[in-house]
Design brief:
The protein has 466 residues and is an alpha+beta fold. It contains 12 helices and 18 strands. Strands 3, 4, 5, 6, 11, 12, 13, 14, 15 and 16 form a 10-stranded mixed beta sheet that branches. The structure holds flavin-adenine dinucleotide. The site of flavin-adenine dinucleotide has 39 residues, from helix 1, strand 8 and strand 16.
């Protein structure tokens, strides 16, 4: 039996995408498969920030913060069309758990850990804060700390990383392709794949295999190869709301610090305001395609109303919502979160089978590097760590961060080049519309799609569920 691939990657979230790109940039014969659409799970459900994680300063995770800030600043250079820097206002109130001096030290440290590549922080006066957020609760307000992080189109960045990798004739990526069986065969690995749209099965043989299946890893490996894997994740659910910008007309981003010690980001973008996240234990059995619970929704609305009391926001002001599962790593042998829960873990259950879990969206490139380097070594191939610092070469057809008017030729472009298989792939990740309510017109999204039914059907997209 001979191997068709040097490497098969299971999972097409941002981590799998990053590994595919590293492999492709080094000329490997590589295949990536995802059970659903690329970037349709955790990697489209983040707070959409490339950041160091200001709150990890409190847990002294300085290495993680520093690495993340350097990656953030790298991607700001590499893909300025997919991410941009913006100010975050962290309001300071009398009697807050974090006093002003602590905030000043924290914000200084944050800039320091970026090698002073961050746009520098400053402390804003009450007047400045209220001029920017006139509806902010002024009771006990002392001012705000202002620091800079990046906002990213998470699903689009993952897709463009994949499109970049696919420029190599040796790289392939298949969405809606689930790994249903996994058999190690000495120096090789055999995988049985199921096309979940047409139920077609195929077997592939590879020299190496990497599981980049994020929060799904424990469940998947327990099913595929229980003798090789014991659970390492302590998954937690996080949800976000898109609020109608007309009802919360803010122009800058804010960080809320609720009484439970968490943080909630409020970020105006795409004609609406993104609010999140929650952090709750998972009750759902399957982690795919999760929905926000009414308790989480209320928690976010309550915190917004406390911060902007005159807004009186209700569920009618929610345009849409989404949820995802954090792939947090727990400490070996315990049920507790690891001290470095947000750093990633590379594990090698077999010499040619790797598993990567944990980490953050922001650090996907270094995660990919950590797991690909040993594969390159085993294949006796030279590895250049700097190759993935090149800009991405193939942009998606619709503009990021813009709710825009779409036309038939743009639709044709997307359907031809962007691996769309279902209506949801098209609407949510290629057009960048969290839901039909975000459509700008003319007319309705339904009308637009119906007018182009012939084109959609030509590309195998079914409009029955519209
Ligand atoms: C609420 C929330 C907010 C967050 N905010 C941020 C943030 O602002 N900034 C940041 O840096 N990080 C953030 N994160 C973390 C970040 O989103 C994740 O670390 C990252 O997206 C994980 O990517 P992944 O590729 O590991 O997982 P995923 O994106 O989930 O990808 C795993 C893929 O594996 C596929 N898969 C599963 N089983 C199979 C199978 N049998 N066969 C084939 N494929 C399979 C799935 O379909 C999925 O697409 C946030 C996370 C959450 C939950």
């Amino acid at each position: 039996v001979t191997a068709e691939y040097d490497l098969v990657i299971v999972g097409g979230g941002v981590v799998g995408a990053g590994i595919l790109r590293e492999a492709s940039l080094h000329g490997l014969k590589v295949l990536l498969v995802d059970k659903k659409d690329f970037s349709s799970q955790t990697s489209q459900s983040s707070s959409k920030m490339l950041h160091g994680g200001i709150r990890y300063l409190e847990t002294f995770d300085f290495d993680l913060v520093s690495e993340s800030l350097h990656e953030k600043n790298l991607w700001l250079q590499l893909t300025p069309h997919l991410c941009f820097e913006r100010a975050f206002y962290l309001p300071l109130y009398k009697n807050a758990t974090r006093p002003p001096w602590m905030m000043k030290i924290g914000l200084f440290l944050y800039d320091f850990l970026s090698g002073f590549q961050n746009k520098p922080h400053h402390m804003a006066s009450v007047e400045e804060v209220l001029s920017i957020f006139p509806d902010l609760n002024p009771d006990g307000l002392l001012g705000a700390g202002v620091y800079y992080d990046a906002v990213v189109e998470d699903a689009k960045l993952t897709l463009e990383v994949i499109y970049d990798a696919l420029i190599s004739p040796h790289a392939q990526a298949l969405n809606y392709t689930e790994v249903i069986q996994f058999t190690p065969r000495g120096e090789l690995v055999e995988l049985e794949l199921l096309n979940t749209l047409n139920q077609h099965k195929q077997t592939v043989i590879a020299k190496n295999c990497i599981f980049a299946t994020g929060p799904f890893t424990d469940q998947l490996l327990q099913k595929l190869c229980p003798s090789l894997w014991h659970p390492r994740l302590l998954p937690s659910k996080g949800s976000h709301l898109w609020i109608d910008a007309k009802r919360l007309p803010i122009t800058e981003s804010m960080v809320l610090t609720p009484a439970d010690g968490r943080v909630i980001f409020v970020i105006p973008q795409r004609g609406s305001v993104l609010v999140g996240t929650t952090e709750v234990a998972l009750e759902e059995e399957s982690y795919f395609d999760l929905k926000i619970s009414s308790l989480e929704q209320q928690y976010l609305l309550d915190n917004l109303n406390e911060t902007f009391p005159t807004s009186e926001l209700t569920e009618n002001d929610i345009l849409s919502s989404y949820s995802g599962v954090r792939p947090l790593v727990r400490a070996e042998g315990t049920g507790e979160l690891g001290k470095t829960a947000r750093t990633h873990l590379c594990s090698w259950p077999l010499h040619n089978v790797g598993v990567i879990i944990g980490g953050k969206y922001t650090t996907f490139r270094v995660m990919a590097q950590d797991i690909i380097a040993p594969v390159m070594k085993r294949l006796n191939r030279a590895y250049d760590q700097n190759r993935s610092k090149r800009p991405l070469r193939r942009a998606s057809s619709s503009l990021p961060f813009k709710l825009q008017h779409f036309n038939r030729s743009m639709l044709e472009e997307i359907l031809t080049h962007e691996k769309v298989k279902t209506l949801e792939d098209l609407i949510v990740r290629r057009l960048g519309l969290p839901s039909a309510r975000h459509w700008l017109g003319p007319g309705s999204l339904k009308e637009f799609l119906t007018q182009n039914k012939d084109l959609l059907e030509k590309h195998g997209i079914d409009l029955t569920d519209l």
